[in-house]
Amino acid sequence: MAVDTRNRILDAAERLIARLGYRKTTVGDIAAEAGISKRTIYLCFPNKEEIALTTIDRIVERLKERLWAIARTEEPPAARLREMLRERVMFRFDSVRDYRWEIDESVRSLRPVLLARRARHFAEEAKILGEVLAEGQAAGEFLDGDELATAHAMILATNALLPANLSSRELGERTEIEAQTLRVVDLLLNGILTKDRPRAAHCYARGEQRRIALPS
Q: What domains sit in the chain, N to C, each tagged with a CATH number?
């Protein structure tokens, strides 16, 4: 029951923040949207800030599940890594695409505590990427090196395309963001593929935006 209540609160908070923005959303609003009392909310969360931060944590947990699912497919390491890097950008884009407020509003309001949270999120994502990088190195597909350091570099390189780092104008259409993401990802992959491997631009002929089929 406690888990269900927490999810109702978080679902309500996501809907309200999407419509109103973080600053205009109140705990009372969230309670009314979730159909519960403010007292129940305070039994689950100490304040509005923690509710908002937990909605972000939940998005990242869902993303990590997606990344692990891609990492565990039978595709070659380069194909998996390409899809994982694409997914980490596009999953976040899709999670906030219906928001009617400036993405960076909540980031600005929550920035001090959010920075530490982000560092943990990015480190967890890098660990998943690192496992595929290590597998690719062992298979001779990628150049040898510190796979975790390489994973962190890939995280940093694709962070510029995350919604929180783009204005509403820069976010643009989904297809534009995806195309930009794949261009960046292919440049990154070209830097680690061994010499006897085809460059990323040729691995995916005619700019095909390949999708890895995940197990149901």
A: 1-45 (1.10.10.60), 48-207 (1.10.357.10)
